[in-house]
């Protein structure tokens, strides 16, 4: 089994390659599929938007039907939105699980509750499939560069089957053990911090505006001080530039922070900071900002304080 933290590097043509299918060609999945292609894998991309699938095929992806792809697929990478979509792709009408050959590996990257991951793994294993609980972190740019971090858990056979694809898609793979659900638990911890950090950044930036601190000066100074965070340095530029093109949308966070709070409730653990951040993202979504970049949560603070953010009239 892999070391506790495996640093994957795209090396040379000797790297093992597979026939790989990627379901979900969104901002993360598309870059992951491109990374697989660059590493020499035979890759087919599937997405609910046929134009996206066609664009990936034009870049070198395969054009088989789902049934044809599944029959020859070594590794299925799921980069869908939520638990419902994972279950639908695997076990819904025309689901992949019944079409994959025994011994194939599923890399499940969606943010889901640990209990759900264990349920999916058990159902897949009953069909002779290997299931790796493998949430991802890093954003669209790192996905496109094959530089993701993966929080993975599962049986040794699942790690073995996923290894060639992970080598192509990730810079760091954290092996969290053989119990499915450990990866999803760690991702919940990460999302708690990430969501709270985005909301805190938006609050701090707009609070600064009430004191005459302009957003660009906030970014210049605080990014070099103890109050910085990766999320601040990554998201605050979107506000400074007035560019809310969705790299990661507002609507991701009611789902992810909702998962965190569901887990916390089952553990009888109070998470008030998570709950406060969730309310801000819900307010942003309810204001029609759900499809915008998650930095748009700053608009909730700005509206309530009568502030004008860069790019707003």
List the helices and strands and how they pair.
Blueprint: E1 5-7, E2 19-23, H1 29-38, E3 42-46, H2 50-58, H3 66-72, E4 75-78, H4 83-91, E5 105-108, H5 114-125, E6 130-133, E7 136-137, H6 139-144, E8 148-152, H7 156-169, E9 170-175, H8 182-210, H9 215-222, H10 230-241, H11 252-266, H12 272-289, H13 298-305
Parallel strand pairs: 2-3, 2-4, 4-5, 5-6, 8-9
Antiparallel strand pairs: 1-9, 7-8
Helix pairs in contact: 8-10, 8-11, 8-12, 8-13, 11-12
Overview of this protein structure:
With 313 residues, this protein is α/β, with parallel strands linked by helices. It has two domains: 5-179, NAD(P)-binding Rossmann-like Domain (Rossmann fold), CATH 3.40.50.720; 185-305, Orthogonal Bundle (N-(1-d-carboxylethyl)-l-norvaline Dehydrogenase, domain 2), CATH 1.10.1040.10. The chain has helices spanning 29-38, 50-58, 66-72, 83-91, 114-125, 139-144, 156-169, 182-210, 215-222, 230-241, 252-266, 272-289, 298-305; strands at 5-7, 19-23, 42-46, 75-78, 105-108, 130-133, 136-137, 148-152, 170-175. 47% of the residues are buried.
